[in-house]
Amino acid sequence: MQTARASRLTSSLSEWDSGRGTKTFQQQLVLAVVDKLLIGAILALAGFWLNRYLEAFKIQRALQNELVKARDQKEMQLLESQLSQFYWPIYLHFQIDNVVWERILQRQSKDPVRAALAHRIETDFILPNHEAACKVIQANIHLAAANPELVSALLKYVRHVAVYRAIRASGNTEVDPLDVGEPWPSDVFPAVEKATMERQRAFDSLLKRYTPSV
Q: Which among 112, 214, 196, 197 is positioned nearest to 154, based on CA atoms?
């Protein structure tokens, strides 16, 4: 009788252990499924917010690019106005003066032909060229406002030309501005040339940036 009772007890414990093992496996299976679902949900949520962030970043970059482009276009317009209305005209007037001014030094020549030619070049070419340069300066000096060194040199040039014209208008053809304390401003042409070339390079650089390559 004791043997039968022990056998039944052993059988019951075995069945209980078997049921507990089955239950533990089912719980693990449920937990694994739940974990995967949670991980999937987290990844989906992270992907959603990542896409939102990337879209916002793209919009911000596009806006920044448009602002930079608008700024550069405005800068190009300013440079174009400076070059076409001020720097290149002044630079060319000075280059023309550089080419021919030495001819007027023959005003004191003993050769009457050379002396007469020198006076005619001064009257018909040098002085009108200076007057044209001064008109450009007076009309567009605001385009050089950001360069005080250049403005100072140009104002000395304008004063030199005013004295030069006044001397010739008085009928005196022998005295030059240097003789009355108004020498030629030697720094004006280098300053104009430097400023002109700097702005031309800046304009060319911006133009190249926005010109499609062929």
A: 196
